[in-house]
Amino acid sequence: MAGWQFIRLQIIYPLILLVLFFVDGNLMSSFGSFLLHPPVHIIPMLTLIWLFYGVQFEIADHLPFYFYVVGIGVLFDIYYTEILGTYTVAFLAATILMQKLRPYFDERIMSGLLLLLLGLLTYLLVTYVAGSIINIANLSLLPFIIKDVLPTAFLNLVIAALAYYPSWSLFQRLT
């Protein structure tokens, strides 16, 4: 990898991650009445999808990846819950799982989406367990899976599938 490409990657990857953090917040703020309308809750997780692309396309090897993961987790904690740790641990657990399972998957889109699904499930499970521990989760496990996990996973897998090849192309140009 040429030096200028490495610098571009070091600038563009965290910049897009930060922009997606704000887009996530803006989507929830603008479309919250639609996305969180009972009986289902749909949570767009563009930042987790971007972290997944970093793992899937092996960008994490060229960057201080876990520094970005912890940083975005702390930003999520401050912005959404004001309780440090919940989203930081969720992002770390999801990305570590995806990183550990990555050698068993190839770069095809269906393999990648399965890897993302495992990361999403880990993220949602960690946030659910944390919410249960601090007594803010008001659903039992089965309704949580049906009303929150399934719609959220569907939306995020569709978004990831639509952006998979454009992201792959971007990373090919940057590395």
Automatic annotation (TrEMBL):
<keyword id="KW-0812">Transmembrane</keyword>
<comment type="similarity">
    <text>Belongs to the MreD family.</text>
</comment>
<dbReference type="InterPro" id="IPR007227">
    <property type="entry name" value="Cell_shape_determining_MreD"/>
</dbReference>
<dbReference type="GO" id="GO:0005886">
    <property type="term" value="C:plasma membrane"/>
</dbReference>
<protein>
    <submittedName>
        <fullName>Cell shape determining protein MreD</fullName>
    </submittedName>
</protein>
<dbReference type="GO" id="GO:0008360">
    <property type="term" value="P:regulation of cell shape"/>
</dbReference>
<keyword id="KW-1003">Cell membrane</keyword>
<feature type="transmembrane region" description="Helical">
    <location>
        <begin position="6"/>
        <end position="23"/>
    </location>
</feature>
<feature type="transmembrane region" description="Helical">
    <location>
        <begin position="65"/>
        <end position="92"/>
    </location>
</feature>
<feature type="transmembrane region" description="Helical">
    <location>
        <begin position="113"/>
        <end position="137"/>
    </location>
</feature>
<keyword id="KW-0133">Cell shape</keyword>
<feature type="transmembrane region" description="Helical">
    <location>
        <begin position="35"/>
        <end position="53"/>
    </location>
</feature>
<feature type="transmembrane region" description="Helical">
    <location>
        <begin position="149"/>
        <end position="171"/>
    </location>
</feature>
<keyword id="KW-0472">Membrane</keyword>
<keyword id="KW-1133">Transmembrane helix</keyword>
